[in-house]
């Protein structure tokens, strides 16, 4: 029998989490609206240089001393690398003056190449600016509550809390926010906050209002340790796929913006666009998300097959859920191949990825609600 | 999966130039080569991936014969015009359809055509040393430079030493070091694709040598694993009746528990079938608790618990007072929340007329709005409600009949009020035709028996594919180049970047050691990756380059302390 007290705690914390997310979204939006502009004007190439101060530091580089080093490139941001290079070229004379010291022979680095950066000199991965920092903290607090909600639900039910659609959506949104926070720190992609939280808040709202299911026991078919393996892997993969899809949508918008700028037309939403990195960076970030999601998904499908073999006597039986997992896998595989095919990179690959995500969503929503099969555990009221 | 495939795509986009550019007539060989090129091109692979995804969709939307034959029959009844048309195109057997097979076989051919030449290339490149260092490292995607004391040769030796310790393959030349690492990227990529071929073979293996069977077993009954003893038997193409594992199973007792209160009331919480089995006919018997997610393995075959229901027991006597029927009849659940089950009783031996009964079993009978329904799946208030028929059951007509349906076309419905029967109660049929007694009920369990020799190979293939995938995403193939020369020469000779500078450039290498000792040595480090799927080469390069710088300078400082001269020279320079 479920522990109703804990289940109640779970319900309340989930509502609090969604409220914090909503506030975080608002603050992220404020950052986009009032936060420090990262670029005054777009460069002719369409790339927006970020953090010009890094370039200035190159000028202070002096001779063979370790102190004189260029600030390292943003690993996830080739545009910044380009800025560093162009900044160095432009500021070359200044660098000479600064480093001169009476002997012009030793320049920063050798032959005009910058010196390698010593590890530990990288830019802070944490969000910069008051708005962004506040929004980030709110998101982290929301995630803490979200994790509490999922955990207490599990404790209330004495099982992994992903036995029906309500619990599954609560879990995948939790995974998506976790991926957002890790991705934002790892790739310094804090600008993504608003855009990832938007689908998360919408999904959670629908989850709570429309498909809430009280805490309860699992049907015998789900009583297996494989639920902890198969469904958890699915949740992680879906969280990453969601992240990838959001970044891809931003990529498409950014690419459109860059085309407009390149064509000399008046850009739309230039203020927001100026806060995003170049399309190229977004494209890579989305690609990376899929590179992590795809093996996770593959693992989840394999784990599902092993469980299916254990429970139903066959590892693959073309159950609608299985079929759509396969379709999703194929479309994302096509995306990965498209990324490596001349003429398919960029926009086309992005559309394929979004199509893959549509298949994933159909598998989650459509197959649960409209197609009956062995995976009909959704219990949507 | 990544950049390497780009090579494949570009190769297809720009076929090897032919010596003579005038159009030539394709011979048979030419055509074959053209077709092969098209098939193994990346674009074709992409299209085939999409086609396979598209072709799978009808399999999830239309009912499939192999998954739910009853739903196919319902579809035929609901769409009498459309269904035969769909059946013509294997709409109810999509995953066994020739067109579906055509797509995946083409895809796998394309895959093989891509993997084989690439394996050959990988094997060849694994035996070759890394390429020479390019002249102008500043043009590489990653490039840094630094100055050091000491001779260029010493700097290069230090750099090569470090790279070798980092398990790079090293090639050295006059004034340069070239290093390469990350062959496992391509290995992983190939492993993934080869494992997919293995998966296909495993599935085929199961299809040829495996079998699937179903058996519905009432408590107390025994069955033997033979084609006759099974309800449904789907052998693989190369399976004969002799290949079945000779075991027999007796269902002793089936137990189901249900949640009795709360919002989940009626939902099952536990199923278990207590069975006895022997793995040889006449062999010793063992007991087993068969549960969902807890199958029984016998002799390579596996037995699963996949369903359950009630089997009311009926006793029928005919007009002569002879007991013509006395057995449990499995009723099939028509809904899950109360487990209302439907079934028929056929008494062909009754005289003077054959008797038939059709009705429902209600585990917990209640009346809602004048209708009988079951409120709970457990047998708390079990009742049976039957309609009685007399006449000809049609069993002699030669048409095979389902045991779960009654053909009433040549039967007459008897005027008996269909009041629900409690266990022990009877219906007296009119005109002295006989009597039916509902003596009690038992439970039944349906078992699935499967044997799939492709199972283990499929698992191994799938896990290999996953490992290959992870390997190819995590490992990047990268090259690091180091050049060293006298600082003064390097300073004016090597262009920073941009083609304009490059035009004026003069080669930097080959400066005299003496000159280097006096003026210091300029070291350049360049790097590029062909497959940086997961990204982060920039970081690795930056760290590696700074370590090379440290190593080279430390080496030079150590040498300088012992030698003294070079260090002094550099100190003067500063």
How much strand of chain A?
Answer: under 5%
Mean residue pLDDT of chain A = 79
Radius of gyration from the alpha-carbon trace of chain A, in angstroms? 24 Å
- Cα(first) to Cα(last) distance of chain A is 20 Å
Radius of gyration of chain B: 39 Å
Approximate helicity band of chain B: 25-40%
N-C termini distance of chain B: 50 Å
Q: How much beta of chain B, percentage-wise? A: 25-35%
Count the E strands of chain B.
Answer: 23
Secondary structure tally, helices of chain A: 12
Task: Give the uncertain stretches of chain B in residue-range form.
Answer: 1-19, 490-513, 564-574
Can you put this structure into words, describing what you see?
Chain A folds into 2 domains: 4-35 and 126-370, no CATH class; 52-122, no CATH class. Helices cover 65% and strands 0% of the residues of chain A. Chain A contains 12 helices and no strands. In chain A, helix 1 (4-34) runs antiparallel to helix 5, helix 6 crosses helix 8 and helix 10 packs antiparallel against helix 11. The radius of gyration of chain A is 24 Å and the shape is globular. In chain B, the strands form 5 sheets. In chain B, strands 4, 6, 10, 11, 12, 20 and 21 form a 7-stranded antiparallel β-sheet that branches. In chain B, strands 1-23-22-3-2 form a 5-stranded antiparallel β-sheet. Chain B has 3 domains: 3-125; 130-182 and 476-573, TATA-Binding Protein, CATH 3.30.310; 211-451, no CATH class. Chain B has helices at residues 3-13, 28-39, 42-61, 69-78, 82-88, 98-127, 152-165, 184-209, 455-474, 487-493, 499-504, 513-519, 537-563, 565-573; strands at residues 142-148, 169-173, 176-181, 211-218, 222-224, 232-235, 248-258, 268-278, 286-290, 296-298, 301-318, 323-328, 332-333, 341-347, 354-362, 365-368, 371-374, 383-391, 411-413, 426-429, 434-451, 478-486, 521-529. Chain B is elongated and about 125 Å long. Chain B is built from 14 helices and 23 strands. At the A-B interface, helix 3, helix 10 and helix 11 of A face helix 1, helix 3, strand 1, strand 8 and strand 11 of B.
């Amino acid at each position: 029998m479920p522990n109703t007290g804990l289940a109640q705690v779970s319900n309340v914390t989930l509502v609090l989490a969604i409220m914090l997310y909503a506030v975080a979204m608002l603050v992220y939006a404020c950052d986009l609206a009032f936060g420090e502009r990262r670029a005054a004007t777009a460069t002719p190439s369409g790339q927006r240089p970020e953090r010009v101060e890094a370039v200035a530091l190159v000028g202070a580089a002096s001779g063979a001393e370790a102190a004189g080093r260029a600030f390292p490139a943003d690993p996830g941001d080739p545009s910044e690398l380009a800025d560093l290079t162009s900044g160095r070229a432009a500021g070359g004379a200044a660098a000479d003056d600064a480093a001169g010291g009476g002997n012009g022979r030793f320049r920063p680095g050798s032959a005009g190449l910058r010196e390698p950066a010593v590890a530990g000199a990288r830019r802070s991965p944490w969000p910069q600016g008051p708005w962004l920092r506040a929004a980030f903290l709110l998101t982290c607090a929301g995630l803490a509550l979200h994790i509490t909600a999922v955990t207490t639900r599990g404790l209330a039910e004495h099982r992994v809390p992903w036995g029906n659609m309500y619990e599954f959506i609560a879990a995948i949104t939790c995974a998506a926010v976790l991926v957002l926070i890790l991705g934002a720190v790892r790739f310094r992609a804090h600008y993504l906050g608003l855009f990832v939280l938007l689908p998360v808040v919408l999904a959670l709202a629908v989850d709570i209002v429309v498909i809430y299911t009280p805490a309860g026991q699992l049907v015998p078919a789900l009583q297996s340790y494989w639920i902890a393996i198969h469904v958890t892997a699915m949740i992680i993969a879906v969280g990453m796929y969601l992240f990838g899809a959001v970044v891809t949508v931003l990529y498409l918008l950014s690419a459109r913006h860059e085309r407009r700028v390149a064509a000399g037309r008046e850009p739309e939403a230039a203020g927001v666009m100026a806060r995003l990195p170049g399309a190229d960076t977004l494209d890579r970030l989305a690609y990376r998300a899929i590179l992590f999601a795809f093996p996770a998904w593959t693992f989840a499908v394999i784990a599902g097959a092993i469980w299916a073999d254990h429970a139903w006597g066959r590892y693959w039986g073309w159950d609608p859920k299985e079929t759509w997992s396969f379709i999703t896998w194929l479309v994302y595989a096509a995306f990965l191949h498209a990324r490596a095919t001349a003429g398919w990179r960029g926009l086309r690959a992005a559309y394929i990825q979004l199509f893959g995500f549509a298949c994933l969503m159909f598998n989650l929503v459509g197959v649960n609600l409209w197609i009956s099969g062995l995976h009909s555990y959704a219990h949507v009221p | 999966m990544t950049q390497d495939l780009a090579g494949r795509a570009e190769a297809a986009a720009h076929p090897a130039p032919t010596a003579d550019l005038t159009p030539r007539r394709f011979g048979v060989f030419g055509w074959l080569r053209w077709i092969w090129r098209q098939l193994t091109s990346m674009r074709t692979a992409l299209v085939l991936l999409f086609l396979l995804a598209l072709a799978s969709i009808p399999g999830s939307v239309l009912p499939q014969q192999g998954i739910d034959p009853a739903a196919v029959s319902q579809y035929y009844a609901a769409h009498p015009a459309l269904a035969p048309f769909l059946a013509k195109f294997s709409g109810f057997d999509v995953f066994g359809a020739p067109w579906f097979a055509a797509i995946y076989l083409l895809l796998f051919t394309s895959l093989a055509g891509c993997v084989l030449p690439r394996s050959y290339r990988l094997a060849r490149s694994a035996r070759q040393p890394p390429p020479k260092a390019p002249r102008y490292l500043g043009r590489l995607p990653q490039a840094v430079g630094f100055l050091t004391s000491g001779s260029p040769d010493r700097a290069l030796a230090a750099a090569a030493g470090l790279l070798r310790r980092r398990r790079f393959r090293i090639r050295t030349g006059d004034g340069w070091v070239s290093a390469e690492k990350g062959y496992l990227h391509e290995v992983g990529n190939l492993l993934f694709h080869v494992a997919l071929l293995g998966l296909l073979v495993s599935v085929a293996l199961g299809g040829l040598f495996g079998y699937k069977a179903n058996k519905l077993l009432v408590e107390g009954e025994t069955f033997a694993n033979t084609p006759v003893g099974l309800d449904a038997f789907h052998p693989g193409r190369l399976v004969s009746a002799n290949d079945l594992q000779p075991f027999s199973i007796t269902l002793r007792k089936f137990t189901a528990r249900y949640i009795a209160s709360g919002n989940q009331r009626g939902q099952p919480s536990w199923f278990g079938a207590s069975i006895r089995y022997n793995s040889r006919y006449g062999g010793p018997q063992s007991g087993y608790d068969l549960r969902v997610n807890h199958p029984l393995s016998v002799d390579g075959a596996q037995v699963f618990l996949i369903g359950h229901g009630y089997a009311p027991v009926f006793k029928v006597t005919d007009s002569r007072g002879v007991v013509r029927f006395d057995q449990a009849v499995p009723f099939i659940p028509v809904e899950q929340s109360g487990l209302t089950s439907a079934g028929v009783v056929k008494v062909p031996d009754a005289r003077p007329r054959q008797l038939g009964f059709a009705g429902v079993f209600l585990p917990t009978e209640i009346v809602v709005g004048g209708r009988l329904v079951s409120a709970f799946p457990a047998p708390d208030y079990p009742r049976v409600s039957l309609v009685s028929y007399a006449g000809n059951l049609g069993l002699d007509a030669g048409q095979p009949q389902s045991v779960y349906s009654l053909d009433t076309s040549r039967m007459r419905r008897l005027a008996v009020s269909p009041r629900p029967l409690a266990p022990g109660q009877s219906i007296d049929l009119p005109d002295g035709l006989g009597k039916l007694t509902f003596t009690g009920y038992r439970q039944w369990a349906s078992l699935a028996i499967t044997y799939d020799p492709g199972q283990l190979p499929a698992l191994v293939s799938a896990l290999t594919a996953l490992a290959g995938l992870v390997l190819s995403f995590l490992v990047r193939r990268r090259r690091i180049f180091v050049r060293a020369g006298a600082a003064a020469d390097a300073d004016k000779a090597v262009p920073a970047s941009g083609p304009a500078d490059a035009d004026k450039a003069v080669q930097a290498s080959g400066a005299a050691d003496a000159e280097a000792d006096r003026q210091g040595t300029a070291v350049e480090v360049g790097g590029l990756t062909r497959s940086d799927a997961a990204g982060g080469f920039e970081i690795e390069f930056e760290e590696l380059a700074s370590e090379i710088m440290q190593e080279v300078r430390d080496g030079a400082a150590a040498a300088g302390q012992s030698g003294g001269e070079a260090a002094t020279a550099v100190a003067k320079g500063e």
